[in-house]
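User: quick one, fold this
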Amino acid sequence: MSRQLHLNVFIHGRGHHEAGWRHPRAGRTALTDIAHLAEIAQIAERGTFDSVFLADHLALGSEIEHAARGGLEPLTALAALSQVTTHIGLIGTASSSYTEPYNLARQFASLDHISGGRVGWNIVTSWLRAASANFGDNDLLGHDERYGRAFEYLDVVTKLWDSWADDARVDDVESGRYVDTSQVTRIAHDGEHYRVAGPLNIPRPPQGYPLLVQAGSSEHGRRFAARYAEAVFTAHLEKATAIEFATDLKTRAKDLGRDPDHVLILPGISPAVASTEAEAEALWDELNALTVPEVGLGHLSARFGGVDLSHLDLDSRLSPDDLPDPATVQAAQSRAELIHRLVSQQRPTLRELLHQLAGAAGTTSRRARRSRSPT
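Assistant:
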């Protein structure tokens, strides 16, 4: 039986490794140069990738002194990329925590029209305190409340995309009738967190909805993905946990009346590519040698809700007790669980852990061998 492999490229700064920008062979293009993103998107399209993906950060991180950060806002960038590509999918991150549903529904409907039906929305519930402070709220919402809001948020935006029938725009010059108003309806949503009258002020997107993408693997994240997601980014260190996750998620989707085969699961891999295994190993070591420990420590702290980990010695073996219980974490709970499990199983030093996370950010790091071209 043949199986189809789905490939997505995660465009992240000057490389997914946090020290990639410092490597002698790295480019020096500014992160605000759309030509850089366009080149990657066009290469991915020629390589028959399904999609390109842009993450988002709603605050300037403390690591900015030592890490290449400060790129373009993803939805704006995707609009530009849609004009220099033809068929590749364009996935952008947008937060349900700090964007009103009506605005987001308009933005993604517009992008879907602009791209000819190629846009996807990576749905996130923001958990960084710095982001919260930028939007007038210094009290970070807890994990349960963020997801409670997210479920209602998706209810609202999908109602807005459905507020226009596919054939509502008749554009009849002879009769002077542009829209069949019987095919455009108010949504009149009055919920716990949102009150939205509707309808949307732009016709229904070509896809109906943008492709819905999600990355949470906690209990709330799995419930959310089973109900809404068409593609799920995930990270696992072991085959057994990956199989459990996939089986559980597809079972939940089926129980909700969805076709489980329509829920794609995309595990992450961050490869070092070279002609031989030895060269790939050397490249990875070069990248890790360029890391600044304070950057990795800041990322690790954020994964666990901002807890201070500066007292830990870089070259001492870690114990699971050195990290907070993931169940108590109100930030990126599934990533916290992954890191906690890694420490329990491997007992790395803090420096080794930071190196492993520097190029993976919760995905799986691998050295990949590239075949030499025939001569």
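User: anything notable?
Assistant: DSSP finds eleven helices and 13 strands in the chain.
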